[in-house]
Each structure stands twice: as C-alpha cells, then as structure tokens.
Design a protein that fits this description.
It contains 6 helices and 11 strands. It is α/β, with parallel strands linked by helices and 237 residues long. The strands form 2 sheets. Strands 6, 7, 8, 9, 10 and 11 form a 6-stranded mixed sheet that branches. The chain has a 5-stranded mixed sheet with strand order 3-2-1-4-5, sandwiched between helices. Strand 6 and strand 7 form a beta hairpin.
Length: 237
Amino acid sequence: MNILAIETATPICSVALLSDRDVVSHQSESGNQVHIERLAIMLKNALELATTLKIQLDALAVSIGPGSFTGLRIGLATIKALGSILKLPLIPVPTLDAMALQYFENSPTGHIPDASIGLLFSHRDLVHSATFRGGSSEPTRGEYTFGSLDQLTPADATTDLFGFENPKITQWLQSTGCQDQFTSIEPNAIAIGHLAEARRDEAMSDYGAIEPFYNTIYQAKKWQRPTFHQNPGNSGQ
C-alpha cells in the first residue's frame, strides 16, 4: 500500500512517503510557524518524488490529535484539500497511538513493556494521557484521559512513560522522581503511515466526517489515572 502521511500535532512538521511500509522519503522540520510555512512545500516534494518513482498513491494519512490546535487545523485542512484533488481516501490516526508505536518499536529496554503511559502536553498545566500495552502488530490503547498535571498520580517503578517533552512535563517528572522512567518521543509521519496501513479499513472518503481531537472532547471527562484494571480495547478512534 502506498501512503502519503503527515504529522502536525506538535511543533514538528513531518511528511512521509511509504510503499508497503518501506519509507521512501521522510521530511521533518520544527518551529513556531513551520506548519504554515513548510507543510505545502514538503508535500510538493513528496508528490514529485512519487511521480518520479512512478509510485501511485493508494491513500493519505493524517495525525488527528490530541495536539496543537493550530497545527492540527492546518494539517487536516491541507491534507483534505490535497485528497480532494487526488481523489484519495484519508486515514485518520490518533497522535498518541502513533507515538506509542514509535516507543514500542524502539523500546529502550529492548522489550515490549507490560504497561506504558503516553503523555502529551496541552496548555496551561493540562496534559493528555493514555495507557498502552504491547500488541503483536501495534500497541493496544485504553481510553484517553485529560486533566491537570497536578492531579496526575506518579507512576510506580514498573510503569514506563513516554511522550513529547515539554518544560511542564519535565518539571512534573523531576518533582515526582519519574524522569528515569520517561522516554522522549518526537512524533513523525512514518508512524502515522505505518498505523494507517494497519488500519486501512478505517479509510474515509467523506472528509467532512473527519475532525481533529481538540481539548473540548476531554473536558467533560472526570480525570483519573489511566490503569489496566480492565482490559483496554483498541477502539482505533
């Protein structure tokens, strides 16, 4: 399956061209204005390479959050416009799912942890969180949660943490003594593309039904520390 994937949920802008899971090209840049200034150019580069190599795209893939409000809006609007021109289906991939895949594929301990918690800073002192366990092809996710870092219970010594590093998260890790359990992950479009291929059945042609995960989705949920007391299902949402 040939996929053009983008990741814009953080200050990192990433575009990847994949063919049957092999990475044909990957571009990644970071900065405050990188999504609006560079995303279209990076997509143009990838499309020109696909034409040169005679790679016919089967689908597009996009990170749909949680993450930067502006980054997600720019990414989703851009990929929807491109998809409308190319007449291709679009596969939405949750940001933390893709970050979990990156973490599990490059586990610093050399094995798949029994339980891990992914963290992604939102704004003020609020953080998105989700639990994951290893799977045969991709990590299995429990429910997303959203709340204050001050309310986040420190993980025990057996729990691995991963996420996109942010000064607020770093401060929390230091204050709770969990810094040695944390692995910093820089989200990239390669993981978005790999998960998109695994979830090809979720490809959508009705772009209007695809919306990014913004903070309001989580604000109505009561904060509680993610656990594995119940068997989490992979909703793929």
